[in-house]
């Protein structure tokens, strides 16, 4: 590993920044403490020396060039909703707040794309596209992340089972490289075999290879109708076993989420609203599927619903509750969307993982994870995307010493990451590596792949100034 | 640029190879002349010193290690159906014929994937999957390419408009790196945010970053029915203008191909069969769309067909001919699939490009290309994927001197590649860069992107032995 060192940001340099973006440069007490951490405070341990609100690609380029010349770390930050510390300024330096570049620039309805600044929030694009009769299919749980952040982690979300992940919707991007150079990658086309895919390399690179400033994203015509089903089961095994049957029957759900009883109860405490039945026909419910179908008209959706009901009831579901009005659908999905907040609201110490395993391994994997609970002083809560094997597993504690919590969690994570690999899965489905998961990535990927990743990082960032100490390169 | 030099393959080294893969090592006259070129003979200008039939990942690893130690070029070759010289041994060395690793290893019907050796032909997987009730959606025109070759060019094909490209169906792969190390990338999951996507970097890298030996590919349940429409128009402009309307009406065609009259006539001469009408209602037909829809039952397909007919007739189509029997569908698509062979059969000198432009630019782009024809002594024929803007443009000559042909084609390509970029398109939709298109890639991508690509190549291949002189690195 090469030796990299950084310089302090000097007052002269701050003056230079102010000349480039007057009124957008902040230091010291002007910087809110929120900029020292993301949504997972356990990974918060560094504040930037300077915070700059992003304005244009050209301004960012000028700022990064100065940082490159002076060996100053640069950390791009979206809305700070990450869960692995990827946007934390571990080595100080200049943080660029991308959430200020938040304009939806242009819809191209003939080619079904939209051009946006990278700081646009997912929720804002989703709502705006809907008004145009269009759908931006990626639907990560956190609606108030920036699209640049979504691309940087290849965020997946609820609808990945039918529509794929963020990667599948990125047609083109403008990037400021660690040298300050600006490159445009991709085009408004769906096919490409035009050299190494720098576009795909940038996707999921968590702000370590370049700062994404503008995106051209694919849209699709919005399905006219949706219908959601709440499907209760006695236990998680029965619940998960149903999942492949949806596909074999060509039912094409837009989303299939699973949730265990405990997390549903936490959500109901948080929202003060009960949506999911807890007992049915004398049976205690242990787990649920929440399934959504989309289509062109209610008639065909009702047909699909009937077929789906037949399939799941035969496979052990206790009942099928149809959410066919806007209010019912909203309640069911609001419950699902509040899981993380519900956990946060009643938990002092929190860590999580978002492994992804083959769909037919979910049940046995979760049974294994649950079996570990008695070894630790924290509790384990889980939910996730049953259609694609992406599991969110939370270690939660209220009465533990932080150091002890971290120690026990490290042990727990080590075991469950290894198990995920044994099951043919991966370390992270959508949250990324940041710096919180670096050791697990290294153990999983192996020396050769890590050498390649480090080599790629060095090619893009010869002075190691961009978001240093993340993914593959410890500093 | 660093200085790389290669050693000759010595008799001793050949003996070493023979120890690793007895009976699979060929030299001199034992090597068929076909191994000196791909499907585009104009890019054939190098023969390997040694040809080795691939057996296992481990054997390839052992062979590549020897080549790495001895600085011998290694060139992986699939079925040799490429169109840019990507598999030509420009610097001699060892060619590894991957088409001999052609076993379909295992279907996993719960996770909807199949594991194959990289030398399996697309056609073989397509037919075998169909027998299992499954569909491998990518459908490049050349059915007798290897799947490893498809992945190496991110092949697109007919069904990309609905189902995406090869990239979207690669879940995992085993790769032998230029150092001989074996890495496994990806997993049987659809979501990932697990470090830089080496998997996606490998896809489309045309055998320059590693030798793909095994693939885990995504399958989908096979649609139960398909129906095809032949839609004749007076001219290409009207024809192309219809295309976005299919999407706005949510009709989701599986494929939309356009073809000009001249290429249809060539195909009919080649096949001795007339499928497409040449005059209708007193109007001379100038262009056609060939559209396929898929679905669960004929009833819903007939509804879609009716709606599609309404839309296109209103937009200027002369008629809509329905191919709803297996024989009619086969004839229509056989005509489309024979275009390249039909051109080859009546052409002595041939070069091509496969630019991709935004869908709403196809008509004006092709009008521009056609307007250049009078400047040259060759004729221009075109067809392509109207749904995704991927155009196949052929320069064809029978009475030209080869040097003069190459000179004129270089001039022509230079102009049309520049125009594609101006239209917001890319150099290649699916054929790749190989060595035939390197100058055009360099001009299009620009210095910075090319520096990054070269840097990546150096990280993977420090001695520059794997498929040297392709994509980004001239030697």
Strand content of chain A: 15-25%
CATH class of one domain in chain A: Alpha Beta
Specify which chain pair forms the largest interface.
A-B, 81 and 81 residues
> Uncertain spans of chain A, ≥5 residues at pLDDT below 50?
none
- What's the pLDDT, averaged over the residues of chain A? 94
Would you write up a description of this structure?
Chains A, B: Residues 43-222 form the FAD-binding PCMH-type domain. Chains A, B: Its cofactor is FAD. Chains A, B: Keywords: FAD, Flavoprotein, Oxidoreductase. Two copies of one chain form a homodimer. The first copy, chain A, starts with 10 loop residues before the first helix and ends in a 15-residue tail after the last helix. Among the domains of chain A are: 104-221, Uridine Diphospho-n-acetylenolpyruvylglucosamine Reductase, domain 3, CATH 3.30.465.10; 225-340, Alpha-Beta Plaits, CATH 3.30.70; 347-422, Alpha-Beta Plaits. In chain A, strand 5 and strand 6 form a beta hairpin. Chain A is 34% helix and 21% strand. Chain A is built from 15 helices and 20 strands. In chain A, the strands form five sheets. Chain A has a seven-stranded antiparallel beta sheet, sandwiched between helices. The first copy, chain A, is α+β, with helices and mostly antiparallel strands and 475 residues long. In chain A, helix 1 (11-20) packs antiparallel against helix 2 (57-70). Chains A and B meet through strand 9, helix 6, helix 8 and helix 15 of A and strand 9, helix 6, helix 8 and helix 15 of B.
């Amino acid at each position: 590993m090469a030796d990299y060192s950084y310089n302090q940001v000097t007052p002269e340099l701050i003056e230079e920044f102010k000349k480039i973006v007057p009124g957008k440069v902040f230091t010291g007490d002007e910087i809110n403490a929120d900029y020292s951490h993301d949504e997972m405070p356990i990974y918060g341990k560094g504040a930037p020396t300077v915070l700059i609100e992003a304005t244009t690609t050209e301004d960012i380029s000028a700022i990064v060039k100065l940082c490159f010349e002076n060996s100053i770390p640069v950390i791009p930050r979206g809305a700070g909703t990450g869960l692995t510390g990827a946007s934390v300024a571990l080595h100080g330096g200049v943080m660029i707040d991308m959430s200020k570049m938040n304009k939806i620039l242009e819809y191209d309805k003939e080619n079904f794309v939209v051009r946006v600044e990278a700081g646009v929030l997912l929720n804002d694009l989703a709502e705006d596209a809907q008004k145009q009769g269009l759908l931006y299919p990626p639907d990560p749980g956190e609606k108030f992340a920036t699209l640049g952040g979504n691309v940087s982690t290849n965020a997946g979300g609820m609808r990945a089972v039918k529509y794929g992940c963020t990667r599948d919707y990125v047609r083109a991007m403008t990037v400021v490289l660690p040298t300050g150079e600006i490159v445009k990658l991709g085009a408004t086309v769906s096919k490409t075999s035009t050299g190494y895919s720098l576009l795909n390399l940038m996707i999921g690179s968590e702000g370590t290879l370049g700062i994404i400033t503008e995106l051209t994203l694919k849209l699709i015509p919005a399905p006219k109708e949706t219908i959601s089903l709440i499907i209760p089961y006695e236990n998680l095994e029965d619940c998960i076993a149903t999942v492949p049957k949806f596909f074999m029957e060509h039912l094409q759900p837009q989303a299939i989420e699973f949730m265990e009883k405990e997390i549903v109860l936490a959500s109901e405490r948080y929202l003060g609203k009960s949506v999911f039945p807890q007992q049915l026909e004398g049976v205690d419910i242990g787990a649920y599927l929440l399934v959504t179908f989309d289509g062109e008209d209610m008639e065909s959706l009702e047909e699909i619903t009937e077929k789906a009901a037949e399939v799941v009831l035969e496979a052990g579901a206790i009942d099928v509750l149809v959410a066919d009005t806007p209010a019912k659908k909203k309640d069911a999905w609001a419950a699902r969307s509040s899981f993380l907040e519900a956990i946060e609201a009643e938990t002092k110490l929190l860590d999580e993982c978002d492994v992804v395993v083959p769909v037919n391994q979910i049940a046995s994997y979760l049974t294994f994870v649950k079996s570990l609970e008695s070894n630790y002083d924290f509790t384990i809560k889980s939910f996730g995307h049953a259609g694609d094997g992406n599991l969110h597993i939370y270690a939660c504690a209220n009465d533990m010493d932080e150091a002890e919590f971290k120690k026990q969690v490290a042990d727990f994570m080590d075991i469950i990451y290894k198990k995920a690999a044994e099951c043919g899965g991966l370390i992270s489905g959508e949250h990324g590596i940041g710096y919180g998961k670096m050791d697990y990535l290294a153990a999983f990927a192996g020396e050769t792949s890590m050498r390649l990743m480090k080599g790629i990082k060095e090619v893009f960032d010869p002075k190691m100034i961009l978001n240093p100490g993340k993914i593959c390169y410890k500093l």
